[in-house]
Backbone:
């Protein structure tokens, strides 16, 4: 289980300083001292878990169209860095396997967000869990999360010992029942929707609260004061310095 959770989790690596969800971004987060990183994974057309946020390639690569309509071989020809800054030209959309290998080498904990394209919830969770199972990270250094309860159900069946974070945007009225049913270890919530009372209600279930996405130190301080355990941030190094924490 998760005995310790970090104060700061590098969001999509270090999204403020490097092209999100690339190996360069994970390296940059680690260089900045991020104790954990978060990345998003979905499937290519041929069923390989890759690390990318959007359903489509358009915003973060040189390609066009849906990730779910693109085979891995074609996706690998795309540039995933130049859109952010020319010095990152040559970055590719990494496979989950590559990110996992890098995370293991560099040492941060990993929050893997399973972000399936429409209709591929179970398949995406199965494929991602298979990659994780083949080369496990050290105990306490992995959290699997998803906005899709079905992904967490599948993960719970396949790997009951891997902690699961229940991701919410709007808070459903029956969030506590859903969290119980999923066996959620953490509640991963949109920081913009939180108040002292909402955080207290989450904490009353005994679960740590992780809040996304916080790039302002004053806001992070407020959330921590309310009882939030950790925040996802695009700027782990800057926030650590401003907050004088790791
Ligand atoms: O897992 C926290 C955060 O990454 C959720 O939102 O859209 O950035 O994946 P998003
Ligand atoms: Mg995410």
Residues:
């Amino acid at each position: 289980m998760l005995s310790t959770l970090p104060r700061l989790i590098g969001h999509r690596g270090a999204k403020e300083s490097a092209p999100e969800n690339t190996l360069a971004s994970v390296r940059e987060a680690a260089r900045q001292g991020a104790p954990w990183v978060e990345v998003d994974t979905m499937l290519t057309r041929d069923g390989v878990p890759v690390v990318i946020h959007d359903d489509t390639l358009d915003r973060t690569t040189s390609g066009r169209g849906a990730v779910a309509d693109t085979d891995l071989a074609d996706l690998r020809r795309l540039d995933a860095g130049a859109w952010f800054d020319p010095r990152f030209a040559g970055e590719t959309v990494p496979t989950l396997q590559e990110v996992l290998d890098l995370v293991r080498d560099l040492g941060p904990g990993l929050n893997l967000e399973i972000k399936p394209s429409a209709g591929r919830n179970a398949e995406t969770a199965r494929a991602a869990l298979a990659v994780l199972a083949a080369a496990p990270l050290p105990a306490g250094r992995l959290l699997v999360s998803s906005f899709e309860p079905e992904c967490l159900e599948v993960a719970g069946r396949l790997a009951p010992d891997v902690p699961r974070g229940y991701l919410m945007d709007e808070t459903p009225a029956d969030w506590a029942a859903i969290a119980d049913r999923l066996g959620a270890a953490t509640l991963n919530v949109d920081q913009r929707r939180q108040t002292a009372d909402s955080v207290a209600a989450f904490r009353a279930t005994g679960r740590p609260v992780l809040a996304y996405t916080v790039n302002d130190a004053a806001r992070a301080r407020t959330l921590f004061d309310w009882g939030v355990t950790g925040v996802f941030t695009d700027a782990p190094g800057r926030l650590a310095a401003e907050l004088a924490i790791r």
